Amino acid sequence: DAGVIQSPRHEVTEMGQEVTLRCKPISGHDYLFWYRQTMMRGLELLIYFNNNVPIDDSGMPEDRFSAKMPNASFSTLKIQPSEPRDSAVYFCASSLTGQANYGYTFGSGTRLTVV
Amino acid sequence: KQEVTQIPAALSVPEGENLVLNCSFTDSAIYNLQWFRQDPGKGLTSLLLIQSSQREQTSGRLNASLDKSSGRSTLYIAASQPGDSATYLCAVKGYSTLTFGKGTMLLVSP
After folding, report:
1. Residue B106's closest CA among B86, B90, B77, B91?
2. Which chain A residue's Cα is nearest to B43?
3. Whole-Å CA distances, B7 to A81, B18, B61, B100
4. Mind listing the pLDDT tens digit for each residue in B57-70?
């Protein structure tokens, strides 16, 4: 398996523009997580899905953020409109069966810069 | 709410030293604890996973221990090498989600 695949690796956009980050989890994994990493706050959970259904989105900072998982092999995180404070590295991770003692596998991340 | 603390925040050692990284967590109701390595500008690489029922796990020069009742874990690195330089992150798994510490930035000088 190629692991968790995220695209793009880097994104530079102007304030006010829409940004869409993409993630392909490991095949067969039933949990998908979106994290954001900043120097100040470290890694923070934004939202997670189980079997394509959003379970907890309490970490999503504002209504400008939205996430979808239309099928088991694809998820998007959208920011509209983007702001400079959204600049961070966004990671996607997947896991097999959240209640069992399995670890997470992370993608390489998307480094977002909003200017 | 689970909180994970890692001490020290940064560590600089000469090559060859044995070292210990510390991680503490506030809620002992965890399923497992995972140690990750992150190189600058890169993603997270899983190093060791300790189940809640286990006391330690070993992989090569790395040994991680878990004392769930006291909310502590340590990552022991033997005979450190410059290639070990990276940020080490501790994460605990609750019902479904993983809560991270802010990491220990390690620099091993030749």
Report:
1. B86
2. A108
3. 37, 16, 20, 13
4. 999 999 999 999 99
Distance between B23 CA and the closest CA of chain A, angstroms: 15
Alpha carbons A98 and B106: distance in angstroms, whole number: 31
Closest CA to A104 of A90, A93, A113: A93
Token output for B57? 């796990």
CB–CB contact B100 A42 (8 Å) = yes
| Residue-wise burial string across B63-83, b where 16 or more C-beta atoms lie within 10 A, e elsewhere | bbbbebeebebbbebeebeee
| Residue appearing with tokens 């993630």 | A23
Q: CA–CA separation, B97 vs A104, rounded Å?
A: 9
Dump pLDDT digits (tens) for B19-44. Answer: 999 999 999 999 899 999 999 888 89
* CB-CB under 8 Å, B98 with A33: yes
